[in-house]
Design brief:
eight-stranded mixed β-sheet, binds iron/sulfur cluster, seven-stranded mixed β-sheet, globular
């Protein structure tokens, strides 16, 4: 049996998205500026190469990029298309109403429509140019603790079969031990989740999430001016659901189109993917897409709770950055610049703590002070209650958003958030005693494979790949599925998963059994968040697998 390797570094960064890469780059800059013994830094990432798992709308506020890499233009940053015009519409089933003014959070002058995947690739190249080791295809699997101190991360084993037994090319994961571990493992990070569980790093406010489903399309080049930004509210969501859409013209006929739904909806038979299909069938949207073709598909959860839902950011031997810390402005639909900013601040704290020879929680608390004094708080604190208020309905949310804008966040003072998955009602509560076909979404949409597509076709366009002969990376307590979930909630996993991973199939005895098509998984984390019983645990599959979000 192969021996497990141990690697010792000063700083381990888990996740090579914008937050993790900004952390690494800032560390390299500090080393250069301050001189002295260089720190050893390692970055691990589950994707096989830079940008492959990065998905966002994506509008970039370049403020942090300017601070991190002032000569970003000369270095060829892929900033895509500058925003040219902003439009917000309220949709009803057959009509649209343009808002006469664009509220400040939706004003995007100075921002860019980008491919997050391309930006991440470019950031990774900047980090590699500084001589920092990036380990692609190495997912963290377990946090390593010494009592309550975090001392590193164990990466996933390779070469385990679906029966749990080693295959021919078995390689145990490595223990990477670090003075400071920086968790940049993204929304609902599965290692950060271990910190919630073992160290109780939550601060009492339930995290708030949404699911975003995105497609890239090529449409006739003269249809939308490059730099056009469109957001919509309303149809096909009902008053009880929160969400909306985006449509960004990237140039050369390529558009990013997507739909966001708050993961706190009540209807157990609602399907976010079906809502996206209805949205595309709206006359306004279908007239934009007509004659175009689908290029790519993807989905990802968004941490929308913002400031009030940040966890304990500093621990003995560890810091948390980016989406893992819930640093997203749900009102502006932006988080990339906040993720990068938090990475920069964490790097500064870690650098000086290691130089001082003290990486205790007390010393690392400087990170929280830096966050509190930074643009992260300036931006997130005033809108801390907005998503929580939208959880009470569109009108409550709109009123809270309006008041937050008018008063600079003084009002509303506090709106309690609720665990989204607990908002889902049981079928009997929601529908009364009326009998329903529980395998058909309440908002099922017609699929024509021109404008609307089924989930399996979407998976094809996401470029997702997993070796089928490995342990299923969706750990589900299936006794719950087979005993009570069907009668109580009608197996909602088959609807909230945007990739048809969960299927209820004939069990050969007149009932249904859960079939998990794990190889379809696009790593969006929605099931880990939205399962009403909390019995789905997403863990990283074997390294290098998952979606291929090039260009997204
Ligand atoms: Fe997303 Fe879970 Fe479905 Fe994977 S299985 S695509 S993480 S909902």
């Amino acid at each position: 049996m192969a021996e497990r390797e141990t690697l010792e570094v000063d700083v381990l960064i888990v996740g090579a998205g914008p937050a993790g890469l900004s952390t690494a780059l800032r560390l390299a800059q500090l080393q250069k500026a301050k001189g002295g013994e260089p720190l050893s830094i390692a970055v691990i990432e589950k994707a096989p190469e830079a940008g492959r798992h990065q998905l966002s709308g994506a509008l970039l506020d370049p403020s942090t990029l300017k601070d991190l890499i002032p000569d970003f233009a000369a270095k060829g940053a892929p900033l895509g298309t500058p925003v040219d015009n902003d439009n917000i519409y309220f949709l009803t089933k057959g009509s649209k109403f343009r808002l006469p003014i664009t509220p400040p959070p939706f004003q995007n002058h100075g921002n860019y429509i980008i491919s997050l995947s391309a930006l991440t690739k470019w950031l990774a190249a900047q980090v590699e140019a500084e001589g920092i080791d990036l380990f692609w295809g190495f997912p963290g699997q377990h946090v390593l603790f010494d009592g309550k101190k975090i001392v590193g991360v164990r990466t996933g084993d390779r070469g385990i079969g679906k029966d749990g037994q080693p295959k021919g090319a078995f390689e145990p994961g490595a223990d990477i031990r670090a003075k400071v571990t920086i968790f940049a493992d993204g929304v609902r990070g599965h290692l950060t989740k271990q910190l919630y569980r073992y160290l109780r790093i939550g601060t009492g406010e339930p995290a708030q999430f949404a699911i975003g489903i995105k497609e890239l399309w090529d449409i006739p080049k003269d249809r939308l001016k490059p730099g056009t930004v469109i957001h919509t509210l309303g149809y096909p969501l009902r008053q009880e659901e929160f969400g909306g859409s985006w449509l960004y013209a990237m140039g050369d006929g390529r558009i990013s189109i997507g739909f966001v739904v708050g993961l706190e909806y009540k209807d157990p038979l609602f399907d976010p993917h079906a809502a996206f299909q209805h949205f595309k069938r709206h006359p306004f949207i279908s007239s934009i897409l007509e004659g175009g073709s689908l290029v790519r598909y993807g989905a990802k959860a968004l941490p929308e709770g913002g400031w009030s839902t940040q966890p304990q950011l500093f621990l003995d031997g560890a810091l948390i950055v980016g989406d893992a810390a819930n640093f997203v402005n749900s009102m502006r639909l932006k988080g990339i610049h906040l993720a990068m900013r938090s990475g920069m601040l964490a790097a500064e704290t870690a650098f000086y703590a290691i130089r001082a020879g003290d990486t205790s929680r007390t010393t690392l608390s400087a990170y929280k002070q830096a966050v509190d004094a930074s643009a992260i708080k300036t931006e997130l604190y005033p809108v801390r209650n907005v998503h929580q208020a939208f959880g009470l309905g569109l009108f409550a949310g709109s009123a809270a958003a309006g008041m937050a804008m008018l008063t600079g966040g003084v009002v509303p003072t506090y709106v309690a958030g609720h665990d989204g998955h607990k908002q889902m009602e049981k079928i009997e509560e929601y529908y009364g005693l009326a009998k329903r076909d529980i395998l058909v979404p309440s908002n099922a949409a017609p699929i024509d494979r021109k404008l609307t597509f089924d989930k399996v076709t979407g998976v094809h366009y996401s470029g997702t790949h997993h070796d089928e002969n490995q342990p299923v990376h969706l750990q589900v307590q299936t006794d719950v599925c087979h005993s009570i979930c069907g009668s109580e909630y009608g197996h909602p996993c088959v609807r909230f998963c945007p990739a048809n991973v969960y299927e209820m199939v004939d069990n050969g005895a007149g009932g249904l059994r859960l079939q998990i098509n794990a190889s379809n998984c696009v790593h969006c984390k929605t099931c880990d968040i939205m399962d009403p019983y909390g019995v789905i645990n997403w863990v990283a599959p074997e390294g290098g697998e998952g979606p291929t979000y090039d260009g997204m």
